[in-house]
Amino acid sequence: xAVPKRRQSKGRSRRRRSHDFLTPLQLASCPQCSTPVPTHxxxxxxxxxxxxxxxxxxxxxx
Length: 62
Prior knowledge:
This protein has 62 residues and is an alpha+beta fold. The chain has two helices and four strands; from the N terminus they run H-E-E-E-E-H. The strands form two sheets. It has a two-stranded antiparallel ribbon. Strands 3-4 form a two-stranded antiparallel ribbon. The protein is rod-shaped and about 70 Å long.
């Protein structure tokens, strides 16, 4: 079985792992209710997306 001949340095390991981090979500404010919402997603509070209301509130349906 293959075994490494030398120990891998900290710099080499850290350079390899430099891309393993998580990126934060891109948040934009909803133009209707101005709550922070991820981009390209229907607003969970008002149901607004791309200039129209896609999801109606249950309060409005009564």
